[in-house]
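>> Question from a student workshop board

For tomorrow's exercise we were told to take the sequence and the ligand below, predict the bound structure, and bring the output to class. My setup keeps failing. Could a helper post the expected result so I can at least see what it should look like? The ligand is coenzyme A.
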Amino acid sequence: MGRYAHITGWGKYLPQRILTNTELAKSVDTTDEWIRERTGIGERRIASAKETTAMMAIHAAREAIEVADLDPQKIDLIIVATATPEYTFPATACLVQDALGASRAGAFDLSAGCSGFGYALATAASWIRSGMHNTVLVIGSETLSQFLDWEDRATCVLFGDGAGAVLLQGKDQPGGVLATVLGSDGSGGELLIIPGGGSKHPASAETIATKLHVIKMNGREVYRFATRVIAHAAREVTKQAGWTIEKVDLLIPHQANVRILDSAAKALKLSPEKIFANLEHYGNTSAASIPIALCEAIDADRVKPGDRVVMVAFGAGLTWAACAVEWSAPKHRAAPVQVALSRVRYGFFGLRSLLARLLRRIDALFSWLIDRIEGKRGGE
Ligand code: COA
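>> Workshop helper replied:
Here is what the output should look like for this input. Compare the format with yours to find the bug.
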């Protein structure tokens, strides 16, 4: 009997601070009208210094774990899809693993631009289907506001911060992630790029002066690519799942530009009510956009058990990813007592982590002392 990868938990985190178009127009040469007309975006969330990529990922993950009512120690693997990790290394996923007390889990980050969540979902589902893992946490988390040129009106109006997470569990019951399509075209790499900070252009006074650490984008070319690839990937994944486009109940596309979504709807001949859009409130949150949209679609009763859901993304790389999911989880919110209990549990895991760090220091101190004593004896 085959294994199926079901989504059993979901959660999101959005920073408190809202930056409206009108506010943005005070610091850069743009207008609310232009941004709404050309992108559909009305406002976006901006992370505070405390709301880092890891912190937001942890909050979204905790919510997903609570919805699934799962012991974090049952998690086999944590994948954080992000283009804006906390550090070059360690992986943000390892920080999440520690905060969740997921002591049995492997953890790594995945970089596929705005398609990252789709790539991570496909990876998680394949491992579950192969029988290698049973419980995988997939998170998309981004603090793009830290990588924007706030003087470049062509990019700074588009992006926002946030995180979304899903928990996948293996079951014998058919359903869940049924098909995935991944693609890339590296010849378009420079169309959407942060050139500085990697090994080619490591940070220096010059890379800072020439603004190499912020997003550079050829908007028109990315737009052309996106409109082409969304319909193609959605059609392909639907076919692989054994469905037709008419049978799809909801398409959750990467939230980049409402005109891109409209053009995909037209190409796929899907009515607008079958396409979920929330970019008016958050802008483009890259790898976090689809899981945040999924959470909001569930809250709005737009995703119900038995529904055929297609998620499709495109982004830097260039990359694209599509997943066909037969939804199986009933709408569920964790009870307040369960939330309180898990807070206590995470507090304990925090203490345990602190203790592990302390023990590591004491261990290092003892090793150093022993080395000194043995060195002295050897010298006698
Ligand atoms: N406010 C006012 N004017 C702006 C502006 C802004 N925020 N941003 C750009 N403009 C100007 C340009 O400077 C240009 O002026 P010019 O004609 O005097 O040179 C004019 O608007 C038209 O620019 P253009 O690039 O043709 O606009 P557009 O209709 O293609 O819209 C984007 C620009 C960026 C909204 C659009 O190309 C887009 O959404 N591309 C895809 C981006 C994306 O999704 N990236 C993430 C992928 S994961």
